[in-house]
TrEMBL record:
Gene3D superfamilies: Tubulin/FtsZ, C-terminal domain. GO terms for molecular function: GTP binding. Signal peptide: none annotated. This is Lin0512 family protein. InterPro entries: CHP02058 (IPR011719), Tubulin/FtsZ-like_C (IPR037103). The keyword Repressor does not apply. The keyword ATP-binding does not apply. It comes from Roseicella aerolata. It holds the Pfam family Lin0512_fam.
Length: 115
């Protein structure tokens, strides 16, 4: 019998300095997190990367403005789910309607391992 066990947790941040694009900031946050980890363990243990359970949590100030499907599609392997929550940071520009936005990403990867 196998059960999913979390084996990787990576965090990242991303921003969009002009335009207030939460999806762009989130995609950059996910890429930042991905570039902090390696899947060498999967190769060493001969685990199919598609068996990974990948849970992505994105924090931005206006979650409803983020395209979670684009974020999901940006992950290269596994069974990916994306949850968007209120978080991150908006930095208003006092002279114009052009906020800088910062997104936070957490990527948790679980593998089906023996109980």
């Amino acid at each position: 019998m196998t059960i999913p066990r979390r084996v990787i947790l990576e965090m990242g941040t991303g921003n969009d300095l002009h335009g207030g694009d939460y999806t762009k900031a989130a995609l950059r946050a996910v890429q930042d997190a991905l570039h902090h980890s390696s899947l060498a363990m999967l190769r060493a243990l001969r685990i199919d990367p598609e068996s990974m359970i990948v849970e992505v949590t994105i924090g931005v100030q206006q979650p409803e403005r983020l395209d979670a499907e684009r974020v999901r599609a940006s992950l290269p392997h596994g069974q990916v789910t994306v949850r968007v929550v209120r978080g991150g940071l908006d930095i208003p520009d006092p002279e114009r309607e052009d906020p800088a936005v910062i997104a936070s990403a957490a990527i948790a990867v679980s593998l089906p391992l023996p109980a």
